[in-house]
């Protein structure tokens, strides 16, 4: 470690922070304003008067890990009860902050958990067909009004009833805020109910019931995560030896100096998938008022997009020894290493700090509602009819440009993004069955040298979706949808999952085109053939 590196408690270190241009000045200003201690003290004035009311009720994450302790014995008991009933397959239904942390936790610790954060009927059908009689469904929604999650609950309820299973209510565990619509529904169903910490927003909720309940039921030792957070907490109030303060200062200062894309890359040292969780935290927290930091999850240290003139390269992983070379194969601006429980708290603290540095309120998400409203309107009135501009193989192309091939249409889109802008690939597909669609990201990034993000729809709507609409208006958007060959009704609702996902995609197209953003829609009439054709066309150039 050298003087640019800061090691805090719990073995969490941030290397490189002070070499990021502007970071030292930002850090010194934070110190002279006493921000670290004030944040630890939950001071709601740190983000200005306009953000104060929201901040007042959103700072519980600072020490929520302490209140979460009471969950440890309770969840051990519940797990015992469920396994005694033979319910050993845990399915988590939840969007954004209600499922991303358990995904990282279980992936990192090698524990099986089935996650439903989709409305793709094929993916949902596959989950419903998997060990149904042994399934316990964790329904996680802070607001208790998220359409995707409620639809999953309905689908499982009907599947359990159709299979003639007993004690159906007891096959559900509902996590929600006290008094939310889901609390009443859960009690009526006879579900197990775990009320969440209401003073913690979804994306800051890793160490609340949202992160811990599904993880514990799946078999994770959650006490260990809480211990790591508690140990790291000791570093948070200080002006020295505070890696989270350094991380926040560097993220904020980099964005102000033009490195406003953050490539998030695993260094391969034992933490899996933190990038997807941090992506939501950073994008939804900072992408507003025409400002923000764009997180770009990059597959490996050598994948396209890891470095660039407007990119802050950040690697993450488990604790590293003092002489270790960080980065896992790339030279990062910042390397964040340490145990997972400490990482969650460090990134949350750093994001709140970066929000202050760039001058936004890190606790609201003012532009998320728009696509949801468009979706509801489409579900009521139907999608406006449209004809493809042309069809190539298994791909229908909807473009306002003049291209006549898929490759040219993508090229046209990419060149329409502002210099220093980005391309967002948004795939409303089955993220297991259609996993190869993720290859589109590196293929476009390699061709263009631009920052390219990839998100599964509708999951990204609860993450980078906020940034797309609220952040700097410099994105170009590639939306990919796919044929539905085996649709599934949403029980008790006047639409199917296939109609819902189409309406979500259509609603987001309306939100983006309303902002006059470049948008290309590709519809796959045969999913696997279409993906293979698209990736091949892009790779060939
Ligand atoms: O937990 P809920 O209320 O279902 O919300 C899920 C996600 O949707 C959002 O509220 C908005 O997209 C996220 O901030 C949140 O994590």
From TrEMBL:
Pfam family, one: PGI
Domain of life the protein comes from: Bacteria
InterPro entries assigned: G6P_Isomerase, SIS_dom_sf
The keyword Mitochondrion is annotated on this UniProt entry: no
Catalysis: reaction(s): alpha-D-glucose 6-phosphate = beta-D-fructose 6-phosphate
Pathway(s) the chain acts in: Carbohydrate degradation; glycolysis; D-glyceraldehyde 3-phosphate and glycerone phosphate from D-glucose: step 2/4
Any single biological process term in GO: gluconeogenesis
SUPFAM superfamilies: SIS domain (SSF53697)
Gene3D superfamilies documented for this protein: Glucose-6-phosphate isomerase like protein, domain 1 (3.40.50.10490)
EC code: 5.3.1.9
A GO term, aspect molecular function: glucose-6-phosphate isomerase activity
GO cellular component labels: cytosol
Keywords: Gluconeogenesis, Glycolysis, Isomerase
Annotated family: Belongs to the GPI family.
Protein name as annotated: Glucose-6-phosphate isomerase
Source organism phylogeny: Bacteria, Bacillati, Actinomycetota, Actinomycetes, Micromonosporales
């Amino acid at each position: 470690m050298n003087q640019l590196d800061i090691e805090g408690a719990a073995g969490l270190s941030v290397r490189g922070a002070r070499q990021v241009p502007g970071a030292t000045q930002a850090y010194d200003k934070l110190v002279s304003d006493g921000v670290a201690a004030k944040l630890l003290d939950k001071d709601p004035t740190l983000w200005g008067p306009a953000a104060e009311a929201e901040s007042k009720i959103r700072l519980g994450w600072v020490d929520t890990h302490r209140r979460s302790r009471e969950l440890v014995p309770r969840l051990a008991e519940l797990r015992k009860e469920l396994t005694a009933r033979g319910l050993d397959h845990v399915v988590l239904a939840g969007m954004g902050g209600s499922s991303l942390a358990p995904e990282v936790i279980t992936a990192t610790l090698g524990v099986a958990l089935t996650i439903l954060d989709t409305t793709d009927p094929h993916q949902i059908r596959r989950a419903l067909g998997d060990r149904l009689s042994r399934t316990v469904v964790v329904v996680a929604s802070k607001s208790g009004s998220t359409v995707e999650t409620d639809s999953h609950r309905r689908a499982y309820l009907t599947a359990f009833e159709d299979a003639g299973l007993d004690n159906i209510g007891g096959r559900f565990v509902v996590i929600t805020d006290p008094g939310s619509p889901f609390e009443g529904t859960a009690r009526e169903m006879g579900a197990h109910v775990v009320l969440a910490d209401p003073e913690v927003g979804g994306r800051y909720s890793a160490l609340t019931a949202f992160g811990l309940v599904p993880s514990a039921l799946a078999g994770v030792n959650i006490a260990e995560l809480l211990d790591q957070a508690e140990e790291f907490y000791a570093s948070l109030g200080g002006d020295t030896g505070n890696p989270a303060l350094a991380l926040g200062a560097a993220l904020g200062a980099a964005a102000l100096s033009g490195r406003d894309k953050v490539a998030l890359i695993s260094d391969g040292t034992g933490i899996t998938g933190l990038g997807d969780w941090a992506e939501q935290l950073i994008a939804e927290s900072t992408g507003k008022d025409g400002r923000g930091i764009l997180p770009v999850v990059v597959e490996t240290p050598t994948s396209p997009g890891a470095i660039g003139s407007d990119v802050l390269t950040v690697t993450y992983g488990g604790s590293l020894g003092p002489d270790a070379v960080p980065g896992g194969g790339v030279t990062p601006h910042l390397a964040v290493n340490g145990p997972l429980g400490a990482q969650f708290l460090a990134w949350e603290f750093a994001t709140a700090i970066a929000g202050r540095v760039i001058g936004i309120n890190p606790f609201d998400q003012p532009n998320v509602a728009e696509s949801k409203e468009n979706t509801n309107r489409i579900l009521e009135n139907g999608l406006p009819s449209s004809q493809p501009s042309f069809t190539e193989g298994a791909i229908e192309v909807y473009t306002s440009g003049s291209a006549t091939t898929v490759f040219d249409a993508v090229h046209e889109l990419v060149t329409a993004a502002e210099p220093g802008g980005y391309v967002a690939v948004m795939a409303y597909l089955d993220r297991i069955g259609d996993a190869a669609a993720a290859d589109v990201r590196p293929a476009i990034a390699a061709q263009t040298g631009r920052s390219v993000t990839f998100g599964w729809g509708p999951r990204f709507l609860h993450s980078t979706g906020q940034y797309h609409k609220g952040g700097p208006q410099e994105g170009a958007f590639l939306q990919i949808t796919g044929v539905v060959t085996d649709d599934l009704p949403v029980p008790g609702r006047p639409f199917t999952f296939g109609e819902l996902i189409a309406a979500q995609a259509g609603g987001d197209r309306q939100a983006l085109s309303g902002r006059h953003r470049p948008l290309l829609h590709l519809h796959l009439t045969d999913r696997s053939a279409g993906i293979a054709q698209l990736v091949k066309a892009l790779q060939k150039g």
